[in-house]
């Protein structure tokens, strides 16, 4: 186990993120190094509501939701790097560059998210993000998240 191994469960994730079912897409954080990186996971099951229409005969997780899950993991890294999120602030997904999809994600897969902080300037963080299944890259992108008072 890594020296940065942690176990942040879904209750703690829900204290960080405002997302709730069916849009909370991170189940657990397994490693966290503030201001550096996070490793998290999502267990993909046939019970996911999007599989009913994407696609009924060949269920595939929509790529946009994989990107959203990576953004949520980046948000957790940003929040935990700052300590905690105050009641009147949110972290918004504000940009994406160089997104590529390399493998389909299907029921029974476990997505592992690896997100590394690249830069943080004026409340906007840029992150290198990968989603893997069985060690194979399913998706990779550069993601930007911004901290905003609401």
From TrEMBL:
<comment type="similarity">
    <text>Belongs to the thioester dehydratase family. FabZ subfamily.</text>
</comment>
<dbReference type="InterPro" id="IPR013114">
    <property type="entry name" value="FabA_FabZ"/>
</dbReference>
<keyword id="KW-0441">Lipid A biosynthesis</keyword>
<keyword id="KW-0963">Cytoplasm</keyword>
<feature type="active site">
    <location>
        <position position="54"/>
    </location>
</feature>
<keyword id="KW-0456">Lyase</keyword>
<keyword id="KW-0443">Lipid metabolism</keyword>
<dbReference type="InterPro" id="IPR029069">
    <property type="entry name" value="HotDog_dom_sf"/>
</dbReference>
<protein>
    <recommendedName>
        <fullName>3-hydroxyacyl-[acyl-carrier-protein] dehydratase FabZ</fullName>
        <ecNumber>4.2.1.59</ecNumber>
    </recommendedName>
</protein>
<dbReference type="GO" id="GO:0019171">
    <property type="term" value="F:(3R)-hydroxyacyl-[acyl-carrier-protein] dehydratase activity"/>
</dbReference>
<keyword id="KW-0444">Lipid biosynthesis</keyword>
<dbReference type="Pfam" id="PF07977">
    <property type="entry name" value="FabA"/>
</dbReference>
<dbReference type="InterPro" id="IPR010084">
    <property type="entry name" value="FabZ"/>
</dbReference>
<comment type="function">
    <text>Involved in unsaturated fatty acids biosynthesis. Catalyzes the dehydration of short chain beta-hydroxyacyl-ACPs and long chain saturated and unsaturated beta-hydroxyacyl-ACPs.</text>
</comment>
């Amino acid at each position: 186990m890594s020296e940065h191994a942690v176990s942040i469960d879904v209750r703690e994730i829900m204290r960080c993120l405002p997302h709730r079912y069916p849009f909370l897409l991170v189940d657990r954080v397994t490693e966290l190094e503030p201001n550096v990186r996070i490793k998290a996971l999502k267990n993909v099951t046939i019970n996911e509501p999007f599989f009913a229409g994407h696609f009924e005969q060949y269920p595939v997780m929509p790529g946009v939701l994989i990107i959203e899950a990576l953004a949520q993991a980046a948000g957790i890294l940003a929040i935990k790097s700052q300590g905690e999120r105050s009641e009147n602030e949110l972290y918004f997904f504000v940009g994406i560059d160089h997104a590529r999809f390399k493998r389909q994600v299907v029921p029974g897969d476990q997505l592992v998210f690896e997100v590394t902080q690249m830069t943080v300037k004026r409340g906007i963080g840029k992150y290198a993000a990968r989603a893997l299944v069985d060690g194979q890259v399913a998706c990779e992108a550069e993601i930007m998240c911004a901290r905003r008072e609401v």
